[in-house]
Amino acid sequence: MVTPPSWSHLPVNKSTALALSLAAALAACASPATSQPPARAAQGQAMVAAANPMAVEAGLKVLRAGGTAVDAAVAVQATLGLVEPQSSGLGGGAFLTFYDAKTKQVTAYNGRETAPAGATPQLFYGDDGKLMNRGAAILSGRSTGAPGAVAMLHMAQTAHGKLAWKDLFGEAERLADQGFPAPLRMANAANGRGGQAQTPDAVAYFTKPDGTRIKPGDTVKNPAYAATVRKIAAEGPKAILEGPIAEAIVAKVREGANPGTLSLADLKAYKPQASAALCRPYRVYIVCTPPAPSGGPAVLEGLGLLERTDIAKHPNSVEGWYLFSQASRLMYADRDRYMGDPDFVKVPTDGLLDRAYLDERAKLIGPTAAATVTAGQPKGAPALARDNTQEVSGTTHFVIVDKWGNVVSMTTTVESTFGSGRMVHGFFLNNQLTDFSFAPVNGDGMPAANAVGPGKRPRSSMAPAIVLDKNRNFVAAVGSPGGPSILAYNLKALVGLLDWKLPVQEAINLPNLIAGGSFYAAEVDKFSPELRAGLEAKGVKMSSGFGAEGSGLHGIEVTPQGLRGGADPRREGVAKAP
To answer: I need a surface site. Which of 91, 215, 437, 479 has the fewest CB within 10 A?
Structure first.
């Protein structure tokens, strides 16, 4: 076993720099000095890495106009919601991690959707007393929570923006009004077999005058979306949380069988959250993510387990991937049992990341894979059982660095592809409430941490990460979509960057391997025959297909030559400087 650095426990500082009233302790972690800090980005360098070139260009235009990373994030999200509606949008939620280059503090913004006041633990039970079919639940009005992405971005931009909010939506408005070429992924999703692509709203939006569905490259116009972003530009988040658009949202979720209870009061009451990021050391670095209910604590636990191995000595090898897979299994077992909304359930984050606990959990990684993996018993853990939460695709990630060195790492989602398949005013509504455990208790009668509750935020795997050196200088930022596989995708990229010393693009390009309790899902064909045979000899038999969307990793790192970006070739993104 490898002994991690003795500075693993990092005390929390107080922050006085934020304009918003974040309670004391917004600072993430103090750290000792180092005599030779890694390379730092020169003043004036900037970059955007996102899943669609049109969204990247929207962000770059804001940066060229003197905007900050958060200013650019508003423009990127507004554009992604138009050109990548299968993944995120105005009707969805997000987590954002922000690095302030001046104060060297990292703040986490939580724009996760909330369940309506009328939601009960039996939300996804039918009139017959049985659990609803998952597909029917997604398409129903019950699946939609109060959207949070716009309100969260407004909170962050108020604190960290330089440009006027009203000036950040011009590119999204222009593309929606004048039209844009349908991206390949959007067109493929629109022609897919998923239920959301077959809803009346989706059919109306994606069908051309000749009765055929859109194809890649076809011009798509969305004047309703243009009108909505104009209204958001003028009024802020009130534009969709109050007034006519809010009324349309409420009416839409109450249509059809299994209507939802989302109300105007629920929308008006929505509040994003801001807090200190959750930061922990990893070797000579500090890795920061949002706290629960995001996937951040799980990714940090995965790193903590790997820190107790010699994975750094085994780049892209049988032993390296074996260690990665076994740490992943332990990480998922704990996440599946203990993670939920900390405003409603006790989440033992400190216990899961405790040095002694990680020491003991890491000892479970033997020379060959154990047949089964179960959750541990960290300090402060309540009596809970593994729940039956099932996350699905419909998410995207982007990273932005501005010329002052501020950084945004943001993962944003509508949950499933095209969310619930229901549209209002040019955008799709989320089906985020199906990220809750459908059953409030499990077969043994124990409660699920991620059970439905009024006002509660569902558990998420989204874990936008920012990496610092021990002097709290920016090193890298990375994140991914992918449903529950996000945890493995992010962990892979961080190992590739920090342990295997790969350029960010090469770390992103590494094959994906998702190791759960009893399965090893992977991009099998991207592993060499020698790697596959070696892993199988150690008990890791990989199979293709894992019920989640592929990765969409995007990242930016600092090098001696300047910023270097990476975009996942599995999507359509790019990383560009202004």
So the answer is: 215
